[in-house]
Amino acid sequence: MSPDSTVTLDPLDPRPLADRTCLVTGASRGIGRSIALELARCGASVVVNYRSSAAEAEAVREIIKENGETAMCAQADVSEPDDVAAMAEAVHDELGAVDVLVNNAGITIDRTFSEMSHDDWQTVIDVNLGGTFNCTKAFFDDIRDSDHGRLINISSVVGQQGNYGQANYAASKGGLFAFTRTLALELAAHDTTANCVAPGFVTTDMLEKVPERVRERIRAEIPLDRFADPEDIVGIIRFLASDHASYMTGQVLGVNGGLEW
Ligand code: NAP
């Protein structure tokens, strides 16, 4: 929205994203799945990206379709530039340009630093940071030129605090802060915003991989005394994707139960 816009936003509009297309990477499961469903609930056409969970991604598309909205599945390993280029071509053919890119796909390979191999390091960096680069590259012109352009990167509280056994993951997530702030500067002249959401610990397959005793130790330190559900994360994404957030850019928004501020 331009600074002199006279459009009045209706906070009760049930489909505030009706005129835009959103792509969510890693939307077959976990947080990305909930984000995709929420953006579609707000009227957006949604691209459900996944790497290998085709049936789960198709189930997300089905739910969106049953609710009368538009969605397509798009397989691509975000760490592979050729995969991402092919995805961009398929998306452009079927839905046209993307207005909102949510870089959510992410992985962990947890080891203490002394046990961490070069491969453990590189694989996590390639998906979490490299995947964000690849997808932003592929859809940069779209979001820059959109009247509602949004870049939303999913980082983590671990990028802010570090975490035992997660040097690779913490570095990838911390890198997203700097990446996002730079993109915010480069996109500002086009009225496109770039922000980072940094969730705390969320009950998904990713958290399931953490040993029970470690999970208990983490939970005990969360001021709100519980892990987040994926649904706890989607409200801020809905806001960032909407016109209500048109003057917010370059920010890191923590949704972490009070773990960090
Ligand atoms: P999750 O349940 O493990 O789901 C990961 C999603 O990412 C899946 O849809 C998976 O697709 C996709 N994915 C993984 N690697 C991919 C690749 N190379 N290319 C394309 N898609 C890929 O994870 P989550 O907990 O929802 O995490 C989502 C994001 O939130 C991640 O960036 C994570 O770092 C961040 N985060 C999570 C937590 C947490 O506690 N859970 C906390 C803070 C931040 P497939 O199903 O096809 O494998």
Question: What are the main properties of this structure?
Answer:
single chain; 261 residues; alpha/beta; Rossmann fold; 7-stranded parallel beta sheet; 9 helices; 46% helix; 13% strand; globular; binds NADP nicotinamide-adenine-dinucleotide phosphate
Brief summary of the model shown:
By secondary structure, this protein is α/β, with parallel strands linked by helices. The protein has 9 helices and 7 strands.
Overview of this structure, please?
The protein is of the alpha/beta class and 261 residues long. The chain has a single domain, classed as NAD(P)-binding Rossmann-like Domain (Rossmann fold). Helix content is 46%, strand content 13%. The chain has 9 helices and 7 strands. The protein has helices at 30-41, 54-66, 81-95, 118-145, 157-161, 167-187, 205-208, 212-220, 230-241, and strands spanning 21-24, 45-50, 71-75, 100-103, 150-154, 193-199, 252-255. Helix 1 (30-41) crosses helix 9 (230-241) and helix 3 (81-95) packs parallel to helix 4. The two termini are 29 Å apart.
Largest sheet, strands/sense/barrel = 7 strands, parallel
Question: The CATH topology, please?
Answer: Rossmann fold
Q: Give the overall silhouette.
A: globular
Q: Counting H and I runs of at least 4 residues, what is the number of helices?
A: 9
Task: Please report which band the strand proportion falls in: under 5%, 5-15%, 15-25%, 25-35%, 35-45% or over 45%.
Answer: 5-15%
CATH architecture: 3-Layer(aba) Sandwich
Helix % is 40-55%
What would CATH call the homologous superfamily? NAD(P)-binding Rossmann-like Domain
Bound molecules: NADP nicotinamide-adenine-dinucleotide phosphate
Name of the level-1 CATH class: Alpha Beta
Strand order of the largest sheet: 3-2-1-4-5-6-7
Average pLDDT rating: 96
Radius of gyration: 18 Å
| Structural class based on helices, strands and sheet pairing | alpha/beta
Number of domains as seen in the coordinates: 1
Cα-to-Cα separation, first versus last residue: 29 Å
Order of helices and strands: EHEHEHEHEHHEHHHE
What are the segments in which pLDDT stays under 50 over at least 5 consecutive residues? Answer: none
β-strand number: 7
